[in-house]
Write a structure and sequence with these properties.
Number of strands: 0
Radius of gyration: 33 Å
Number of domains: 1
Distance between the termini: 43 Å
Helix content: over 70%
Length: 140
């Protein structure tokens, strides 16, 4: 009859659970990474939607600016030909209003396109937090 010392049995149990622990840790890390990727995709989609809206505002502003330039040109021609008669001044007022609207749209669209506003900040924060957690788990 052979007798196994208690220490060897305990070591055998530790070796058997180490792969299970490693597998569990890898599954947990994989799950965290999947979650971070999903969050990253959602944030990038949201940023892309904001960028598309800002580009649409810039394009609308550019179109209105072109229209206002046409109106200014027509107003200037009318003013020169009529030497200050009412229709020329009314065209200048319309052109001025359109130019102001166009400038406001272009400036606000440009401000919304700043790279700082488009960065996936929540994903960056979560990845940094996950890295800290993994460091603590490894050291602790």
């Amino acid at each position: 009859m052979t007798h196994t010392p208690p220490d060897q049995g305990a070591a055998h149990t530790d070796r058997a659970s180490a792969p299970e622990l490693l597998s569990e840790a890898m599954n947990h890390a994989t799950g965290m990474m999947r979650g971070e990727l999903d969050l990253f995709r959602a944030e990038m989609q949201q940023s892309l939607n904001k960028a598309i809206a800002a580009i649409a505002m810039i394009a609308t502003g550019a179109v209105l600016l072109l229209v206002s330039l046409n109106v200014f040109a027509a107003a200037f021609v009318a003013w020169l030909t009529e030497a200050g008669v009412g229709p020329g001044w009314s065209a200048l007022i319309v052109g001025g209003v359109l130019a102001i609207i166009a400038v406001v749209l272009v400036i606000s669209g440009k401000n919304k396109l700043k790279l700082v506003n488009l960065a996936p900040t929540r994903t960056v924060r979560n990845v940094q937090r996950d890295a800290e957690t993994l460091k603590e788990a490894r050291n602790g």
